[in-house]
Design a protein that fits this description.
This protein is of the alpha+beta class. Helix content is 33%, strand content 24%. It has a five-stranded mixed sheet. It binds zinc ion. Zinc ion binds next to helix 6.
């Protein structure tokens, strides 16, 4: 489902912070209530089963800590990745009438760098946007539900003449 707006309401995030929470609970507790957003959860359109958790970062690969995301992925038994995306200098032609959170125009993404969350300093995959969508498709096609299993079979039959 596409978002109608690219503006993110920070009200809850700010409310949750220690400086705010201390108004309602003791300072020690306010300091240890950790919370983070999950950038992206890819899930099966047919059965809603999560197929991957993704932390997205603008720019090129750099060391990042994603321990809570990794813990969640382990508990859910789904793969987790960190996806770095590089913007080009050309506006994305399908979003020329939109702006991002800062009011800036939306530029085309020209390259992705992807690492497994479990191995943030391990192999970095470089992908074009087309390769990235093919990779995402593979994650979705891995869902074991009957609907996705049928789609996999149909796609295999289309490949073989
Ligand atoms: Zn499914």
């Amino acid at each position: 489902m596409a978002e109608r707006s690219y503006w993110r309401d920070l009200t809850y995030s700010l409310f949750h912070r220690p400086a705010s929470a201390r108004r309602f609970i003791d300072g020690r507790m306010a300091d240890i209530l950790c919370m983070c957003d999950i950038d992206s959860m890819e899930y099966c359109y047919a059965c809603s089963r999560p197929v991957a958790l993704i932390e997205t970062k603008a720019g090129k690969w750099r060391p990042v800590s994603v321990t809570p995301l990794l813990r969640l992925a382990e508990l859910a038994n789904v793969p987790a990745f960190v996806v770095f995306y590089a913007r080009g200098y050309v506006l994305d032609p399908i979003y020329t009438d939109r702006t991002n959170l800062n009011g800036d125009p939306i530029y085309k993404i020209v390259e992705f760098q992807i690492v497994r969350a479990a191995e943030p300093n391990g192999k970095v995959w470089h992908m074009t946007p087309k390769q990235y969508f093919r990779w995402l498709s593979g994650l979705h096609l891995s869902c074991p539900c009957p609907t996705m299993s049928n789609i996999r079979k149909q796609r295999e039959q289309q490949k073989t003449p």
